[in-house]
Amino acid sequence: MVLSVIATLAIPKILGQAVDEMLSEFVHINTLMWMAIALFICCLLRGIFDYGRTYCTDSLSQKVTYKLRNLLYDKWQNLSFAYHDNEHTGDLMSRATADIESMRRFINLGMIRSLHIIFMIIVTTVLMVQIDVFLAAMSLIFVPILVIRASTIIYKLRLLWAEVQEITGQLITILQENLSGIPVVKAFAAEEYEKTKFSKKAVELSDVTFQSNKLEASNSSTTTFFFTLGIGIILFFGGSKVINGSLTIGQLTEFIFLLNILNFPIRMSAWIINSFSRAIPAGERVFAVIDEQSPVIEKTGANDMARPQGAVEFKDIMFGYDKNSSILKGISLKAKPGQVTAILGGPGSGKSTLVNLLPRFYDPDGGDILIDGHNIHDYTLASLRNNVGVVSQDIFLFADTIQKNISYGIEDIDLDHIREVAKVAQIDEHIESLPDSYDTWVGERGSTLSGGQRQRLAIARTLLMDPPVLILDDSTSSVDVETEFKIREAMKNVMANRTTFVIAHRLSTVRDADYIIVLDKGQIIEQGNHEDLYKLDGEYKKIYDYQYSTETDIMLDADVEPEKGKGTL
Q1: 319 - beta bridge partners?
Q2: What pTM, to 2 d.p., does this model score?
Q3: Span 25-53, mean pLDDT?
Q4: How far apart are CA 254 and CA 543, in angstroms?
Q5: What crossing angle do the helices spanning 451-464 and 415-424 adopt, rounded to 10°?
Q6: Dist CA 130 CA 165 (whole Å)
Q7: How would residue 413 be classed by pLDDT, with cut points 50, 70 and 90?
Q8: In this structure, how many other beta carbons lie within 10 angstroms of the beta carbon of residue 233?
Q9: Measured distance CA(185)–CA(192) in Å, rounded
Q10: SS3 at position 298
Q11: DSSP 3-state of 367
């Protein structure tokens, strides 16, 4: 940086002396030749030093943003479900891309180069003062005005760019939701509605961005105006000094070149202000994520969980997704090793919420959860979740091969082992019928597979973990009755040595369970095996009788009554 400034500021000095030499009575061609060589060397060195500075600043800014982006990504992996439940995917994507890019630009051309600019301004001003104090004062007379204006603009720009980044996140959210939900859009012929929604937000973004750019342009144009005005003043007063002999033409030439060099850092100062105004709100959005504290925290000194026998106990569990809600109210439940526990209940009864507490996707507000008599908080999150397999309602498959999706998170797994779990999940036969078999590419979110195929693939993926505790959350709701029967029969051997919690909307899925609990409004209202609950003549019996009296496999979560005389809802 210092060498670059020296090489740059040596050029006006050489040019000034060359002008005076040419205007002198005795012009020495050799002197001019050496001056030309010196000028060439200074220009060459300036180019080399500028390249080196640019390379270093670019490398540094890329390394910083690389670490920031990875830090942000790592943070998202470690934040609990509670955080992701309340955030929009598009907004998070905007923070990882547009916001970090704004920070990179400021680090590259703003924060680092500001040192170069400050040094350049100081040294250039000193050289101008050495030539003529009065001219230097006249050149810098407008600087206070520019500083005052910059201080007012930076606040306005910061607010505007914060709004731009917020709207950008909203726009990306609309785009992401539209592309993910394109089947729904087309099914409801809502293309025009989506276009209008996107267009309105795009116009809003365009308007705010235009206001920001207009303010930036006014700042840059004001700086240019005062600088040009300064050159005019210097030409007038400097020319007067040349006429009266107090200043040589070479000195005036050197002064004007120095003033021209000063133009760059002053104009860059305006750019830095604009860049700073973008980077501050971007940094606030990025570090808001990095500083986020997850309610699910791995305690200091947590131990790795060895493979447990699988005794699970929920003790007086209380839970709500926020302070104003109470989803689970004093739930107590025990499951012996290898026991299959079925959980029934209507919408909002807390079925999925209860089992989501077991792998610590959320932490209860009160009560304890024990595995083999030990509190799950005593174990590391990774080891706990490796021992609790989950097949959730919302099946997510990655854009990769079938083999990679089944073996997700497990390295160096044998294909024969993958085939074994696929057979248990009743999906192996279909996979083998495909041209590329297990190397078949699965579309985004498994778009090339049917709902039942996706669900069986998810079951295979979970079984490959070989977890001693298994959670099946509506895992057969998207398959036909025949396939469901095959899966249940095949999984009987799998569940024999696993503690299994089954959440299902079909009674046929749960009637063979060792133990059944019925939830209503976050409380257990009935519990026992099929025979015991049927004898109670309670809610379970009503559901069971209703199903088989209509000869249908009803969905317990449905909110509509079946048509008279028909066995479907």
Answers
A1: 328
A2: 0.71
A3: 77
A4: 96
A5: 120
A6: 47
A7: confident
A8: 15
A9: 10
A10: coil
A11: strand
Domain residue ranges in the chain: 61-111+129-290
- How do residues 482-494 score in pLDDT, each as one tens digit? 766 766 766 666 6
Continuous H helices in 79-111: 81-85, 89-94, 100-105
Vertex 567 angle, CA 565 and 569, to 5°: 105
Average pLDDT over residues 335-359: 88
Query: Is residue 526 a contact partner of residue 517, using CB atoms and an 8 Å limit?
Result: yes
CA dist 448 → 436, 440, 451 (Å): 14, 10, 10
Q: CATH number of 61-111+129-290: 3.40.50.720, 3.30.830.10, 1.20.1560.10, 3.40.50.970? A: 1.20.1560.10
Q: Which residues contact 27 (CB under 8 A, 6 or more apart)?
A: 21
User: Is a pLDDT exceeding 80 seen at residue 150?
Assistant: no
- CA 28 – CA 24 distance, rounded (Å): 9
Mean of the pLDDT values across residues 206-213? 86
- For residue 1, the model assigns a pLDDT of 59
Beta-bridged to residue 342, according to DSSP, are 502, 516
pLDDT of residue 551: 42
Q: Which of 39-48, 271-280, 329-338, 504-513 has the weakest average pLDDT?
A: 504-513
The rounded distance, in Å, linking the Cα atoms of 370 and 339 is 15
Q: Nearest 10 degrees: CA dihedral of 337, 352, 407, 396? A: 170
Residues 360 and 356: their CA atoms lie apart, in Å, by 7
Residues 85/294, Cβ–Cβ less than 8 Å: no
Structure tokens at 235: 């030409």
Alpha helix (H) residue ranges in 132-142: 133-139
- Beta-ladder partners of 303: 379
